[in-house]
């Protein structure tokens, strides 16, 4: 196995593990942040673990998907049902903010709250086959 293939394999393996950790822990995010924050005293730092993990996962999956995107073109990405769904949801959120004349900080926080799970949804698509292969191997 060449060095680049080995790096890609390790990157995909890390993304798969990060995805599984996120899927397992995100439902308990609020509890874990409040509980560990009160015990350790770093509540504000603990509160961003989910966002940082999702951003790291999005960067990794972007790196993994870049060669196929360059080969197939950006239009093929925009035609995928998951990407269309995420785009429509974000467009609906932006439209609601415009219709309610909500242009402040709360609009940005609302957009972040709406977009982060959707980014996770898109990122999971890139490593879903690897997760399925692991499940079958167990």
- Count the beta strands: 0
What's the overall geometry? Answer: flat
Order of helices and strands: HHHHHHH
What is the overall number of helices? 7
For the terminal residues, how far apart are their CA atoms?
24 Å
Q: Uncertain spans, ≥5 residues at pLDDT below 50? A: none
**Helical percentage:** over 70%
- Class by alpha and beta content: mainly alpha
Strand content: under 5%
Which whole number gives the mean pLDDT? 77
Structural Rg: 18 Å
Question: What does the model show?
Answer:
It is a single chain. By secondary structure, this protein is an all-alpha fold. The chain has seven helices and no strands. The chain is flat. 7% of the residues are buried.
Q: What is the compact description of this entry?
A:
This protein has 138 residues and is mostly helical. Helices cover 87% and strands 0% of the residues.
What's the helix and strand layout?
Elements: H1 3-25, H2 29-40, H3 43-46, H4 49-72, H5 74-78, H6 81-99, H7 105-137
């Amino acid at each position: 196995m060449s060095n680049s293939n080995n790096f890609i394999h390790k990157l995909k393996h890390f993304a798969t593990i990060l995805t599984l950790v996120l899927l397992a822990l995100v439902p308990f995010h609020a509890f874990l942040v409040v509980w560990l924050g009160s015990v350790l005293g770093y509540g504000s730092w603990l509160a961003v673990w989910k966002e940082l993990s999702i951003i790291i996962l999005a960067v990794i999956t972007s790196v993994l998907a870049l060669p196929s995107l360059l080969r197939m073109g950006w239009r093929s990405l925009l035609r995928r049902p998951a990407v269309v769904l995420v785009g429509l949801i974000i467009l609906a959120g932006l439209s609601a903010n415009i219709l309610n004349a909500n242009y402040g900080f709360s609009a940005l926080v609302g957009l972040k709250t709406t977009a982060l799970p959707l980014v996770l949804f898109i990122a999971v698509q890139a490593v879903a086959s690897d997760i399925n292969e692991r499940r079958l191997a167990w």
